[in-house]
Amino acid sequence: MQCISCVQYLAQWREQASKFDGMIRNAIEKILGFPMDDTTFAQACLTPRLGGLGLRKVVEHADLAYHASWHEAKKEAKETWILPANLPADYLSQKDASFDFDEKMHRYLVDQADTRGAQRLRRAAQPHACGFITAVPSDEDGKETLLRLRNFQIGVAYRLGVPVLDHEIPCPLCKQPINIFGDHATCCAKKGDVIIRHNSLRNLIDSIGTDALLSPVMEKKGILGNTTWSSWRCDVSALGRRQSSGD
């Protein structure tokens, strides 16, 4: 009887769970500075590994957690319990069950999205694409490694497919159009983020190589243009080969 009562209890507090999920949604919208429709919030509730923000809805995962805990508690107690009528005999751990649910939701979102949206969802689920979401803020490598709030908001909006502009505008650097989703900003090759990101990584790698006494040589100016100095790139793998060979 006790197990059946627990199952009934889950149905009784579903309304409270839904209200809690609504509070979380309201809070994240205030933090990010923009409202989310149901589809966008569904992506935000996915694990970061699958392109979300890890906000996990209680109403979607509570039953999965209960099923896992019931079976694991029974196994830990080494007792014979009567299986409730609506509880499956087979189970996954809470972690695996939640990830399985998220995978199905991610496939659903991809299937329902347009071509650009589907590709965005697939790219957001690639390895390490969630780095800026899950990384612990640290200024150990310099203050520039900390994302400003507005940069973080724009980064999350781009990840979730939320427009970052009211209307299409020309790029102030190369005059190419920037759509409302800001796609051009990620690939502008004229003094844009591509070069800034490259230079930041170059400086960081040079610093790491210097600290490791690998005698790195900073790449020469103009390396990204027509030049004969391509061999001067600061290459970590090359530094490792030189160190191991004794050069």
Short description:
The protein contains ten helices and two strands; from the N terminus they run ααααααααββαα.
Give a written overview of the molecule.
The chain has 247 residues and is an all-alpha fold. It has 2 domains: 2-138, no CATH class; 193-245, no CATH class. The protein has 10 helices and 2 strands. The chain has a two-stranded antiparallel ribbon with strand order 1-2. The protein is globular. Residues 1-7 and 227-247 have low confidence and may be disordered.
Write the layout of secondary structure elements.
Elements lengths: L1 H11 L1 H19 L5 H7 L13 H20 L16 H19 L2 H10 L6 H4 L14 H12 L8 E2 L6 E2 L14 H19 L24 H10 L2
Antiparallel strand pairs: 1-2
Helix pairs in contact: 4-5, 5-6
Q: Please give the domain count.
A: 2
Largest sheet: number of strands, sense, barrel closure? 2 strands, antiparallel
Based on Cα principal axes, name the global outline. globular
Order of helices and strands: HHHHHHHHEEHH
Mean of pLDDT: 83
